[in-house]
Amino acid sequence: MTWLHDWAIGLCAAAIVCTALMLLLPNGGAAPLMRTLLAVFFCCCLLGPLGSAATTDWSSLVPTVGSVEQSEQQMEQAFYDTLQAQTDAVLTDLAAEALSGTSYRVEKIEATWTTSEDGSIYMNGAVAWLAEDQNVNAIAIGKKLNAVLGVQVIIRPWR
C-alpha cells in the first residue's frame, strides 16, 4: 500500500504545480498550448502507475500446478497434525480423569488412525505411555483405559 500512498502524494503535488502554472500563464496566444501541455502532464502523473503495472511480471502471482498441489498437501498435513494434537490432548485428559481415583498414572496417550476408502478418518486405537513407576500396573491400566476410551489401548513404558 506504500505505492498507493506515494502515488496519491505525487498526484496532489502535480495538481498543485499545474494549478500554480495555470494561474501564472498569461491569457495570450500560447495559453491554450500551455494548458494542453499541463493537462497531458497531469494525465501522465495520473496514469503513471499503469505504465509500471504493464511491465510488472504478474506470472509470479499465478499459482503453478505444483505449488497448488504442494499447498494442498501442506494443508492436509496441517489438518492431520492438528487433529492428532487435539485428540491426544483430549485422550490424555480423559485418561487422567479416569485414573484420578487410583494410584495409576499415564504420561501420554497418542491416537492411532485409519482412513477408509471413502476418505473418512477413524480412530482405531491408542497408545498409552506409562510413567516409569507404573509398568507393574500395565494390565490394570490398560483395562481401565479400554473401558473409558472405547478403543483398544496399547500400553508402552515411558522412556
Distance between the termini: 53 Å
The average pLDDT is: 80
State the major sheet. Answer: 3 strands, mixed
CATH class of the largest domain: Alpha Beta
Strand content bin: 15-25%
- Number of structurally distinct domains: 2
Structural class: alpha+beta
Taking pLDDT < 50 over at least 5 consecutive residues as the criterion, the unreliable ranges are none
Which CATH architecture of the largest domain? Answer: 2-Layer Sandwich
SSE topology string: HHHEEHE
Rg result? 35 Å
Based on Cα principal axes, name the global outline: rod-shaped
User: How many individual β-strands?
Assistant: 3
CATH topology of the largest domain: GMP Synthetase, Chain A, domain 3
Topology (SSEs and partners):
Blueprint: H1 2-24, H2 31-55, H3 65-98, E1 106-115, E2 121-130, H4 138-149, E3 153-157
Parallel strand pairs: 2-3
Antiparallel strand pairs: 1-2
Structural commentary:
There is one protein chain. The chain folds into two domains: 1-23 and 34-45; 75-157, GMP Synthetase, Chain A, domain 3 (2-Layer Sandwich). It has a three-stranded mixed sheet with strand order 1-2-3. It is 59% helix and 16% strand. With 159 residues, it is of the alpha+beta class. It contains four helices and three strands; from the N terminus they run αααββαβ. Strand 2 (121-130), helix 4 (138-149) and strand 3 form a beta-alpha-beta unit. Helix 1 (2-24) packs antiparallel against helix 2. The model has no long low-confidence stretch (mean pLDDT 80).
